[in-house]
Write a structure and sequence with these properties.
The protein has a domain of 55 residues. It contains two helices and no strands. The longest helix has 39 residues.
Length: 112
Amino acid sequence: MSANPSITFETIDSLDLNDVNGGDIGAIIDAGNRTGNAGALLGAGAGAVAGGVGGAIGGTAVFPGPGSAAGAFGGAAAGAGVGGAIGGAAGWVGGAATETWRQVMPKWLGGR
């Protein structure tokens, strides 16, 4: 007679996380989406300003007058794209991590 005649393993699907420790994967994703959107907007705004100023300075140095405007527009567009991507990614990760913390920690550590 063997000690463990039948051992079975079950694969856990990410959708099953709702049933583990009372977690709510939908709330984690929702929190990430909300803060990711806010981060993208803030990052794009800051990037557009920084890129526009830098582009105007660079454009003025190369071709004063028309180069200033072209540099400002090009720099603002590039800065907005980069800032939005970085801000959105950082915001999503931060929001999802915060919600995960709230779900798994006891109340005295900021949990629910």
